[in-house]
From TrEMBL:
UniProt similarity note: Belongs to the GPC1 family.
GO molecular function, one term: acyltransferase activity
Species of the source: Entamoeba dispar (strain ATCC PRA-260 / SAW760)
Pfam families, per the entry: DUF2838
Name the UniProt record assigns to this protein: Glycerophosphocholine acyltransferase 1
Record-annotated membrane-spanning stretches: 28-48, 54-74, 86-107, 113-134, 179-197, 237-259
Length: 265
């Protein structure tokens, strides 16, 4: 029997074909991210060593597009409420601080508030949440920019700039004011996620850090508080509020001494 090759039709299985296309797209994104990450490392090193005054500009050039991209991606997955987390709130505070210093020459107490919150809970979150710098991972790159780069900005302002930055912290500027800043975020977060948009979040399948860390993929701190200490077993909200509050206060303590150290220069 002779088979006419002109009559043979090759059909692709849609699921497999789509999967291969997605893999190709992912590989392309990984390659672009890798090149971009490598370039960021080199550029950051050069600016830190040669042009420290450009650190705030580098920070804004990285933060704005990366967070915008994250919002668009998260919105498709119904994860946009993650952008209400403390790290984004703190970055908004850093941007406000830059505007205050550069446009109005107003430094205190906003600088001290951001220094403590960035060098404390924001920086330590890299260790607590295991945020590693993976060159080909856009998510990891964005997380590093969000958690680490604000500290580079504050480092420049404190030790390299000519602005009248305070060289020490008082109990008021180093603890009370930063804590008020943190509590203001916590109140806003609870009002938005647990009052205003509560029905939309829980009935619409939206994800928040509260649901993720306490219910979907419980963090080790949540397990420690609920299982080892036996506290707030039926209240994930209380677990998050009190655990984060204790963590924040603990990470504030070293910051009271770091600002006046000269060896970091």
């Amino acid at each position: 029997m002779i088979v006419d090759s002109n009559k043979i039709k090759i059909e692709t299985i849609p699921v497999i074909d789509d999967s291969l296309k997605k893999r190709r797209n992912i590989k392309l994104l990984d390659k672009v991210t890798f090149v971009m990450s490598f370039g960021i490392v080199l550029l950051t090193e050069y600016i830190m060593l040669r042009r420290a005054e450009l650190i705030p500009i580098l920070y804004l050039m990285l933060l704005i597009p990366l967070v915008t991209a994250r919002f668009l991606v998260y919105r498709m997955s119904k994860w946009q409420f993650f952008l209400l987390d403390f790290c984004y709130y703190t970055n908004a505070g850093v941007i406000t601080t830059l505007i205050s210093i550069y446009c109005f020459n107003s430094v205190s107490p906003l600088f001290e508030i951001m220094f403590v919150n960035c060098a404390g809970p924001l920086l330590m979150a890299i260790i607590l949440w295991t945020n590693s710098f993976v060159f080909h991972d856009l998510t990891k790159l964005t997380s590093i920019v969000i958690h680490f780069f604000p500290n580079l900005v504050l480092y420049y302002l404190r030790w390299k700039s000519s602005f009248p930055i305070p060289d020490h912290l008082t109990f008021l500027t180093g603890f009370v004011y930063p804590l008020i800043f943190y509590i203001s975020w916590q109140v806003i977060y609870v009002i938005i996620t647990e009052v205003i948009y509560k029905d939309k979040i829980y009935n619409g399948g939206y994800m928040t850090s509260l649901r993720w860390l306490c219910q979907i993929k419980p963090h080790m701190l949540h397990q420690f508080v609920t299982k080892k200490l036996g506290l707030f077993k039926d209240s994930p909200l209380n677990v998050m509020i009190w655990t984060q509050l204790v963590y924040t206060i603990v990470t504030y303590i070293p910051c009271l001494f770091v600002l006046q150290l000269q060896m970091v220069t």
